[in-house]
């Protein structure tokens, strides 16, 4: 019965829609909540203590990061202030495995926290992960659409300028990174206008169509033909799809290399 009442409290719509801002007085008592025994939460928060990690378990910070979305869901977004400092500490941890764990789950945490807290507390950390090691960046890349769809349109458009950076990796042989980018672009087309697609996503898609690895190219063909052409064709401005077609002819159909002309055939197919 206690568990059912707790879950009802956590997921009650009125709780989720409450104002998420806290006064300075509330911030000073930020670790106090009444959902779970306070001693249990204090024990969890102490996992980020550096001395504890060195003497008990070097992997303890990773386990703490792995469990954090579940703890946040249990406490509810009204108690996010209890976890905020711990989350920021983990996000700047020296071990890339800890940051990687957070990168893979930041989209789940965004759903739990809602748009206001996500914009204020998660977006800066998300931006930091975008500039991190490839092992961390792949975490945000795999769920890029899931995270960006939760942001307001003006905030979402800011990331159009950064998508190009995903083409550059620490290791050029890491083709799976580019393949994942192509998969995410297919999903991202629904989040942006025809103008944004043509100006920002089209150059990336064309670059992926000419990738050295065939697996990346095949996903990119689907991106350009099934999704991008369809999206631009239904747009109110018909010039976008016409210009796209002309560029396909120029770049691939009239390419001096046979591989480029073969790409054109596959795209047409």
In terms of DSSP E residues, the strand content is under 5%
Element-level helix/strand string: HHHHHHHHHHHHHHHH
**Chain-averaged pLDDT:** 85
CATH topology of the largest domain: Leucine-rich Repeat Variant
Number of strands: 0
Distance from N terminus to C terminus (CA atoms, Å) equals 60 Å
Instruction: Characterize the main sheet.
Output: none
CA gyration radius, whole angstroms: 22 Å
CATH architecture of the largest domain: Alpha Horseshoe
- Unreliable spans: 5-20
- Report the helical percentage: 55-70%
How many individual domains?
2
At the fourth level of CATH, the homologous superfamily of the largest domain is: Leucine-rich Repeat Variant
Description:
By secondary structure, the protein is mostly helical. The protein has two domains: 35-151, Leucine-rich Repeat Variant (Alpha Horseshoe), CATH 1.25.10; 170-268. Helices cover 70% and strands 0% of the residues. It contains 16 helices and no strands. It has helices at residues 2-11, 13-16, 24-28, 38-45, 50-55, 60-75, 84-91, 96-130, 134-142, 144-148, 153-157, 175-188, 194-209, 214-233, 239-253, 258-268. Helix 6 (60-75) crosses helix 8. The chain starts with a helix and ends with a helix. Keywords: Repeat. InterPro entries: ARM-like (IPR011989), ARM-type_fold (IPR016024), PP2A_Regulatory_Subunit_A (IPR051023). This is PP4R1 phosphatase. GO terms for molecular function: protein phosphatase regulator activity. Residues 1-31 are annotated as: Disordered.
